[in-house]
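Quick one:
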Amino acid sequence: MITNRLSVLRNWEIEGKAIRLIMDEAVFVRRHLNIQLAPGKMPEEETDRKWSSATVEGPISQLVVAALPSETVGCLLDIKHLLDRRSTILLVQQGAGVLELINEHVFPDPAIRPAYMLAFLSHGVYGRAAHFSIRLSGSTGITRVTTVPRDITGSIENDSPDSTMWMIDALKRAPGIHPYFSPYLQYLGLMYKKLAVQAVLEPLSTIFEFRYNELASNLPIVRLVRLLLAEISLVLRSLPELQAASHRDWQFDPGRLERNVWEVAEHIQTSVSPMLRETQDARKPQIYFLNGYFVQRGQELGIRCLTNYMVMQMVLAKYVGNRQRKQSDIPMQ
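Output:
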């Protein structure tokens, strides 16, 4: 494991140098893991000097990135020199558009570009009070996984490196992962379907501070949902990478997408949006990788996604307001 924060290293030692995965009533404990500090991250205090020798060494054959989309490029830049065309990077994230940013800012040279894999979870993973303990919401969920074809990433290599097969084998052995491997085009269809749902539930529950199951009973919000999905549907049905997909128009029909939204909202019911927590804590929301992604792709295709743009600005306004409020809340002595 690689981190760019010394506080993570401290918590790792405090919590017994182990990761605990809680699934149903079972607890899986993994010890003897090597956690290292990203290169260039120096100890902040004298008491942290013992961590200076724990910096990561390369080369890195397989890398799993579970950082927030907005933090991924920065994380990879710290270890870019330890990755090359023999490496495989697995991105496990919500949202879209990260891969394009990585190619632009981290690996612009196709000659040294690593192989990529993508994955998303169909079940929830929730943190606990302990930093290295997580709980899975049930044991029946699966992890959708795909390998990104080399011709799509612009790499000069035609075949996947050996590290990709090693990554696949590791996923199959991991408890609670339940990987389901899909062809790239099929994966895109499933990922965009999930993205459309998130681009509705996350920002609207954030703006109005509603729980997911409260949205469907509010008629003005239902109308807003339909406006968002009309734009999202048009963008998805126009994407060049999906033109070869069968049943594309049916899969991304606005009415079908709306049914998906309400099914998910009913399933997770009273859950609070992670994006709402982000804005309340004055942390930058990942809206650029949800509605912002559809706005950007729409611009490329000549489609104006005004409702999605408006919703994105409302979420950002909420975040900026909370950040300014916290910054001005200076304790008086």
